[in-house]
Amino acid sequence: MSEKTKECPGCALEVPSDSEICPYCGYEFPSNSRWLPFVAVGMIALMLLWFVGC
Fold it and tell me: Using an 8 Å Cβ cutoff, are 40 and 27 in contact?
């Protein structure tokens, strides 16, 4: 698989990496949220603080 393609989880065919919908099976790729990394780091920090406090 090249850097300009990604594998569709619906049909396992390679599609262009900027595709939002698979042209073969119609699978809709989830949109990447810009907040996800910040939320993940925040949750990990809260869990670490909780474990240290116990």
Answer: no
pTM of the model: 0.53
Rounded to an integer, the average pLDDT of 23-42 is 89
Round to whole Å and give the CA distance between 33 and 45. 20
Domain residue ranges in the chain: 5-53
CB 15 within 8 A of CB 22: yes
CA separation for the pair 49, 43 (Å, rounded): 10
What is the mean predicted confidence (pLDDT) over 32-53? Answer: 90
The single-letter DSSP state of residue 34 is S
What percentage of the chain's residues is helix, strand, coil (to nearest 5)?
35, 15, 50
